Amino acid sequence: MPVILPESTELLQSLATALGLGLLVGLQREWVQSPVAGIRTFALLSLFGALCGVLGIVFGGWIIAAALVALAGIVILGNLGELRKRPADTGLTTGMAMLVMFATGIICVLGHRLVAVVVAGTVMVLLQSKKPLHAMVRRIGEDDLREIARLVLAGLVILPLLPDREMGYLGVLNPFSIWLKVVLIVGISLAAYLAQKFLGSTRGSALAGIFGGLISSTATTASLARRSQDQGACGLCLASIALIASSIVFVRVIVEIATTAPAHLAHMLPPLLAVMCWFGLVAVITHRISQEKGQQDMQASPPSGMKSAVIFGLLYAVVLVVVAAARQHSDTSGLYLAAALSGLTDMDAITLSTSRLVSTGHLESTTAWRMILLGGMANIVFKGVLVMLLGARAFIKPVLAGFGAAITGGGAVLLLWP
């Protein structure tokens, strides 16, 4: 079988790409004064990988295997002196980077230059990010690591094992889809929590409200209500955080609709966006007023465990069945009642389940966005009850005023939107 080599121009471009990528990564190693390999070594290394790739095309893959063994020996010899001098300080990072860049040179001549560029860029970023990455790891506590492990368990271990097909009552229960929503919610909450932890909430109540809304607006509101009872607490400042958190919920709603029912987003987005903008305006006005009286920070804690994730999955499945049954056996008012009840404590379940029914053709998008909006208004009512039960007078008044304005705007959209 004849061997087909790239044409001369294509081959030269691949070799030049490999050389340039080696210079790029070598520049970083030279800058940190790596004793093992610098800018020239990495340039030659990636070029060596590209030439081995060409030889591999002609003579077979054993050439690449032999070159890889030779390279490993060179890396070991290059580190031998450092191991004798400073065994505690010598790592494997540069050696591993050399092996990766050797493979990058090979894939350049195999017609995957874009992949090679992405890999080399990632290598350089990782090498340059040593200090921030190490600092980030040192700031992660045992509880944080436990939550990350649980997310990995939910998303990378359990999810692939679940069947991806409709089953159960009325054919609306898809185990893979249900658990995927659990992973989505836990992932969003964990990402928001880690962002708050690393960025800090000391920049003001606006940042605290945004992160609180991404984690859980209901839990945030309850926490703020309790804090408003503390001596010297600024009720208006805490109220602005609660209103911002509640308005951010609609950002989550829109993201969840876009993820679950992207084909229907254009029809469902405008009314929900209008309510979000109105609620956001109320929150911004309250925040501006509160700036004259000082700001307070929010302390974050890991947002979710496996128990709460499983509870959410069960709630999501129940909402799917309830909404499907209401559609099957009652008129539209039954759907709205189910939406209001499911939205009292959590917006994610009604949003994701309703969007899922829309994407599978079990529900019209016009009815779906009204159900989601009604669930959002019920959620505001529930948080208002929490505020009255747990909050101080200075906190209750501005929060209820903001919630009242939000419900008024949402009701107008619900009744007047065509």
For the CA atoms, what is the radius of gyration? 28 Å
* Proportion of residues in β-strands: under 5%
Work out the helicity level. Answer: over 70%
Number of beta strands: 0
Number of domains: 2
Assembly level: single chain
First CA to last CA: what distance?
68 Å
Structural class: mainly alpha
Shape: elongated
Secondary-structure element order, as H and E?
A: HHHHHHHHHHHHHHHH
The residue-averaged pLDDT reads 76
Describe this structure in words.
This protein has 418 residues and is mainly α. The chain folds into 2 domains: 127 residues, no CATH class; 271 residues, no CATH class. Helix content is 78%, strand content 0%. It contains 16 helices and no strands. Helix 1 runs parallel beside helix 5, helix 2 packs across helix 4 and helix 10 runs antiparallel to helix 11. The longest helix has 26 residues. It is elongated.
Provide keyphrases for this structure.
418 residues, elongated, mainly alpha
Brief summary of the model shown:
The chain is mostly helical and 418 residues long.
Helix-strand layout with pairing:
Blueprint: H1 8-31, H2 39-59, H3 62-85, H4 93-109, H5 113-128, H6 130-139, H7 142-158, H8 175-199, H9 205-227, H10 235-260, H11 265-290, H12 306-329, H13 332-342, H14 347-359, H15 365-390, H16 393-416
Helix pairs in contact: 1-2, 1-4, 1-5, 2-3, 2-4, 3-4, 4-5, 7-8, 8-9, 8-12, 9-10, 9-15, 10-11, 10-14, 10-16, 11-15, 11-16, 12-13, 12-14, 13-15, 14-15, 15-16
